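Q: Here's a chain of 420 amino acids. Please give me its 3D structure as tokens.
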Amino acid sequence: MQAFHSAATKLLCLAALAAVVSSSILDFRPSYRNNNNMARKRALKVLSEHPVIDGHNDFPMGVRDVLDNDVSKLNFDHDLTKEEPWASYALNHIDIPRMRKGMMGGQFWSAYVSCNTQFKDATQKFLEQIDVIHQIVAKYPDDLMWAESAADIETAIASGRVASMIGVESGHAISSSLPLLRTLYAMGARYMTLTHVCNTPWADAAQTEDGWFPPRVNGLSEFGVQIVLEMNRLGMLVDLSHVSTAVMNQALDVAMAPVIFSHSSARGVADHSRNVPDDVLLRVKANGGIVMVNFYACFIVADCRSQNATVADVVAHINHIRVVAGVDHVGIGGDYNGIDIPPVGLPDVSHYPDVFEALIQSEVEWTDEDLGKLASGNLIRVLKDVEAVRDELAIMERKPDNTWIPKQDLGNDTDCSTEW
């Protein structure tokens, strides 16, 4: 099997992130009420009507690492905990049976390759990952449905299938090219995170706040602003997971449509650079966006390596975002298949109902309507709002932006480029 570094690199990044987690954590854990059985029945009823749409899953990275993207070898409709090579794979959190048990109605599949590809062959590898996602969805038409719009998501859920969308994880996918951004959108990508654990020539990553490396453009460059605006014109969700706080604020300054955090939690609960500060949560509320809570233990508790993160900690982040930003601006973005330490009791996607049961028993009051918004309603509403902005801009005859990134913004990172 070809050795590919993406999963190993991602695990190394996660391990390093764990080392810089702050010890500051707000105690926002729920106190549980009696009658768990009633809470369970209520959670299952809500999810039968409003199944979970998850904002981020890295399973396609595993298909590359484990199967060299040979989908003919994939048995996604089997329990992959019992089949090799998956049973021995560290990031084994999803398959169709577990999605069904988890009462899922939608999944953004992550097209991801590591920062080591930036300025080299990143775009090729991202295109390969988009291609393999298409193949996976096509192989299981009874369970998965390709979706490129809010209407598609609703159709998939109504037909009892899991709406399958693409999220591009990191702006280095487009090699600083607006035409490539449009190409990814045409191939079905419906969000793009502006960075991963590296700066792009036009946006700074969260790790600049931890001292991993210096900022490159002190937030979002002028060309980065043009990327955000072009994403708005296309109807592509702007994903602010992984970026620095400066980028969060600068993107919110210029965005014409709601933004998302596809897999981030609350910094007011766990003080980590990958989480969203309270002042930004308030801006997400004003913007109409959504923060989809990440389940990685090292983002949701201070001491993740002690293996003590639980469903209560996930609930704490959800409740905090709800209290600060409002119930219309929170969702689920588990980051499964990309994390090595899930919370105790939440080992994979089959346990999403446990989160809703715990929310029902928490100190914050959740109506069935509220729970439905968290599960899928908020994400569908945000996507509809982004599509509405796209349609308005089309009526205004907003044209594609054909600006090239200024050569000086690339600095010395042109060794693998031909003549400018």
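Q: Can you summarize the key feature?
A: The first strand starts at residue 52 and ends at 57.
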